């Protein structure tokens, strides 16, 4: 019987490593030091809390790789040759701090669907990805843009889900992300700017908006914005914006701030339209 999957925890022996050459899935957890061989048949590489000593040299040999997951790892540098992974669908580098920015060649992988980064993001207008659905980006990347989001044209226009951990952002991110034409889910965490504004015709397809660790004094929602929004959560505001009561599709709103009064005019308007508040 042939096994195509290996899992390692806390150790990595040279003899075991030699036996992995034909594996299609490798899982590694808390491995203090590991080396990758030429793994041309590998489909899934999932490593956490570990050190891969020769990652930048070995990864370009994994030409059939579909899912690359390196969480909370060290000494990771994405080489330009990562663009050779023509079948790559998922790259997950959450809590992994890269030694350099993400190479432009990553954005030329047409099959890429899900990207999770903790840093190193530098967008490009020349990306070829047409399948990208999920983009998860954490704080440190925004230092490249002087603590603000890059322009909307630098994000993949096919993006459907966007997760931003943005406690260093000083400028309102909404005028940027509201222009993404296919965006369905937006999760924004950490923004503490004074104001936030959604303009008319903004977020034409957005259905879910999650705001966490979120504090702002004023949120302006112009008429015509968020026409398809059906769910909103974690709104830490003392007074709800008037524009929420005008949203035609809003069905449920989760409020975390106990200071919002039951007599809030917008709360009454929403309940009157059948929106569930909790």
From TrEMBL:
Question: Has UniProt tagged this entry with the keyword Disulfide bond?
Answer: no
What InterPro entries does the database record attribute to this sequence?
LRR_dom_sf, LRR_R13L4/SHOC2-like
User: Which Gene3D superfamilies does its entry note?
Assistant: Ribonuclease Inhibitor
* Domain Disease resistance R13L4/SHOC-2-like LRR: from-to ranges: 36-118
| Tagged with keyword Secreted | no
Mind listing the UniProt keywords for this protein, alphabetically? Repeat
- Tell me what this protein is called: Disease resistance R13L4/SHOC-2-like LRR domain-containing protein
Source organism per entry reads Oryza rufipogon
């Amino acid at each position: 019987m042939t096994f195509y999957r290996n899992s390692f925890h806390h150790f990595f022996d040279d003899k075991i490593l030699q036996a992995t050459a034909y594996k299609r899935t490798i899982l590694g957890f808390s491995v203090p030091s590991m080396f990758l061989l030429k793994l041309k048949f590998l489909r899934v590489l999932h490593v956490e809390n570990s050190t891969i000593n020769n990652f930048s040299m070995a990864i370009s040999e994994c030409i059939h790789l579909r899912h690359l997951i390196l969480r909370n790892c060290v000494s990771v540098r994405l080489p330009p040759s990562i663009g050779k992974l023509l079948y790559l669908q998922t790259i997950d580098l959450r809590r992994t701090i890269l030694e350099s920015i993400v190479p432009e060649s990553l954005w030329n992988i047409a099959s890429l669907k899900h990207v999770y980064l903790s840093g190193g993001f530098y967008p490009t207008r020349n990306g070829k990805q047409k399948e990208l659905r999920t983009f998860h980006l954490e704080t440190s990347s925004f230092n490249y843009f002087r603590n603000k989001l890059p322009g909307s044209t630098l994000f993949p226009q096919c993006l459907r889900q966007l997760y931003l951990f943005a406690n260093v952002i000083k400028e309102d991110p909404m005028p940027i992300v509201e222009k993404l034409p296919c965006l369905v889910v937006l999760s924004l965490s950490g923004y503490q700017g004074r104001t936030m504004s959604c303009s008319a015709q903004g977020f034409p397809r957005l259905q879910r908006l999650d705001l966490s660790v979120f504090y702002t004094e004023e949120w302006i929602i112009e008429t015509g914005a968020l026409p398809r929004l059906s769910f909103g959560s974690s709104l830490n505001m003392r007074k709800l914006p008037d524009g929420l009561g005008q949203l035609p599709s809003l069905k449920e709103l989760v409020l975390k701030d106990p200071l919002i009064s039951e007599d809030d005019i917008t709360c009454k308007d929403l309940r009157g339209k059948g929106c569930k508040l909790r």
